[in-house]
Amino acid sequence: MTMNINQSDINKKQIDIINQQYTEKIREAAKRILLEKKADVVIGFKNGTEPMKTEPCLITKASDVDKLIWNEHCRLNLANYVKGRKDKVAVVAKGCDSRNLVNHIIEKQIKRENLYIIGVPCNGMVDKFVNVKESKVGVESETMQKNLDVFLIDRDMLQDNCKTCISRNPVIFDEMIAEPVKERVWTKEEKLKERFESVNKIEAMAESDRWSFFNDMLSSCTRCYACRNACSLCYCPTCFVDESRPQWVGKGVDPVDVRTYHFLRAFHCAGRCTDCGACEAACPMNIKVRLFTKKLDKECFESFGWEAGMSLDERPPLDVYKVNDSENFIR
Amino acid sequence: MKIIKIDKKLWSDGVEKSRAAYRLIGPVKDKEFHQFRELAKGEQPDMNYKNSRLSPKSIAFPQSETMFLYDLDEKAEAHHIMQDAPKDYSPRAVIGIRPYDAKAFKILDLNFNNSDYQDPYWINSYNCTTFIGLANSSPDKFDFSTSCGTGPFDDSAVDVLLVDYNDSYLAKIMTDKGSAWLNAAGFTTKNGEIDGTVKGVGEAEEDIYEIIEKLKADAEAKITSKVAFDKIKEKSILDIFNAPFWEDIAFACLNCGTCTYSCPTCWCFDIQDETKGKKGIRQKNWDSCMTSLFTVHATGHNPRHNDWERTRQRFMHKLKYFQDKYNQGIMCVGCGRCVEQCPANIDIRNICNQMNNGEWE
């Protein structure tokens, strides 16, 4: 017990030092980028108005770079703030943000030459509900404990997606603000078992249990669409739930409509989701919406060995035809 | 005004007893958050709750409310004619509502029940409800209710205000409605003295008003965040509307509905017909000015095309238009739900102060 407390004290101090170093380096980079006109604007995080909160911000003047900060509460995915911009944008990107930038480039939402990526090696994000949780809502396993040494932040405090992160360092960048952090080395079996543990549990449920599990899970959804709006993948000019001519989905909180929204949104993210966790970080009701996207991540990983946003050189599986496809019907 | 003292030992039995004449609603922890909903038989309101995740406005303004039913089957009687949906407007009591949330009902009432418009669903629901308020002795850091014309001990919008006092609740009886519920619960003079002094077992005679004033002052002192809106009123609409800070304020905003749906005073709604087979309903759903669909015209033109214009609308409505129209403060009770829950840290306190104190060309 004493050891644990000491260990987490040390980690807390380490994290504080790292945050300070990162913050300084980000400011330095932002200032240089703006002064050297490598970008018109810098998108990063600033301090929130309360502890454990941060706010995405747009810096346009070199004199404003001191607003920028870094800490373990920079949960939102800044790739979401880049889409649709016509100017040249420098963006602060942790591992998952960079993977969504790759998505944007592949999906032609932004040109690589219009991006300047300030890469941040990520130590994981603290779950925003960590203080109010009485019991851990996420799914844990003993085997997952073994990557404890990779993290500086207490596992119990991390967002679920960070616990099984496959790319804490940015996959593309124009400059890094620090040395890369240690990545866990995964075998395929470990990935299937641990990364998709939550999905595996649901798959193992009887059909009727699964149905009641989903109903219960979505019962508190207000359809505020925070999950969709925080998602870097959701950039349709008009989302299917907002179509009114014709209207595909009811607007109320009928469980059928709530489910339709969540299921369809997840399908729309198939082969594209990077498991950045912004949807869950945004949800005010703490609904584990990643369970849906994870199911499709798993399908993509099992069928095609695919993990989204890892490389600019490969198109997502639902977007390509390959002669060696395992399914006969498509050949 | 009368005050009675209710021994907490008698509380749950009294609540249960009041069921004979009332449907009961109260804060209950479902999964990880508290919400206000109808209490099942034997179910007690959680009087130790801090705050409900969503505001209790849904009691009289549900997220989805069926107004009419219709039948499109021409063989059916009265087909193609809207029929009133069945409603239960028998007396009900909402127990444990926070003073600021009760105050929000007064604000909603300005919109749903005025000389121009009377929304029968709201009016009937509001009128059949007795508000048994619960003073908030420990406001959290998001609470700024004292600068919004209410506060943790505000008794202006409740029928009874309960003040937690050691082993008792001191109950300020504000209205006849409140008195009727207390009677139904059996909380009468038999359980505590009336008016002026309270004597507990082994206690000296105390001045009850002083006790409550002291508890009130203690609670209010815990509230450190404040907003000011006096100068917003003096500034012209266009001056604030065209202020240079809106795009900056709105940059992080995701334009989700978290703030509007958790807000006790956001009253916008949409009306939808939903048909399944030959049968259908006409329903009233919460709407949110954060969404594009909120203002898009039939032509496809959207007067609030940009995300940041929608963010501006929310704060202009709450802090400027409402003040100008009703001259009753701002359309915010300072509950802090939007501040706490916003995924992008859009903080109405800062924005209000910026609109109020900011100077710009």
Task: Give me the secondary-structure topology.
The complex is a heterodimer of chains A (331) and B (361).
Chain A: H1 2-35, E1 41-47, E2 54-59, E3 68-69, E4 89-93, H2 95-106, E5 115-119, H3 160-163, E6 175-176, H4 188-195, H5 197-203, H6 207-218, H7 226-229, H8 255-268, H9 278-282, H10 290-304
Parallel strand pairs in A: 1-4, 4-5, 5-6
Antiparallel strand pairs in A: 1-2, 1-3
Chain B: E1 2-7, H1 8-17, E2 23-30, E3 33-38, E4 64-71, E5 83-84, E6 92-97, H2 99-112, H3 120-127, E7 129-134, E8 160-165, E9 168-173, H4 176-185, E10 197-198, E11 206-207, H5 208-221, H6 230-234, H7 237-241, H8 246-250, H9 258-262, E12 269-276, E13 279-286, H10 307-326, H11 337-341, H12 348-357
Parallel strand pairs in B: 2-6, 6-7, 7-8
Antiparallel strand pairs in B: 1-9, 2-3, 4-5, 4-13, 8-9, 10-11, 12-13
Characterise the protein shown here.
With 331 residues, chain A is α/β, with parallel strands linked by helices. Chain A has helices at 2-35, 95-106, 160-163, 188-195, 197-203, 207-218, 226-229, 255-268, 278-282, 290-304; strands at residues 41-47, 54-59, 68-69, 89-93, 115-119, 175-176. Chain A has two domains: 2-176, no CATH class; 188-330, no CATH class. In chain A, strands 1, 2, 3, 4, 5 and 6 form a six-stranded mixed beta sheet that branches. The termini of chain A are far apart. The model of chain A is unreliable at 1-5 and 132-149 (pLDDT under 50). Chain B is an alpha+beta fold. Chain B has one domain. In chain B, 31% of the residues lie in helices and 20% in strands. Chain B is built from twelve helices and 13 strands. In chain B, a hairpin with a 7-residue loop joins strand 10 (197-198) and strand 11 (206-207). The longest helix of chain B is centred in the C-terminal third of the chain and has 20 residues, at 307-326. The radius of gyration of chain B is 22 Å and the shape is globular.
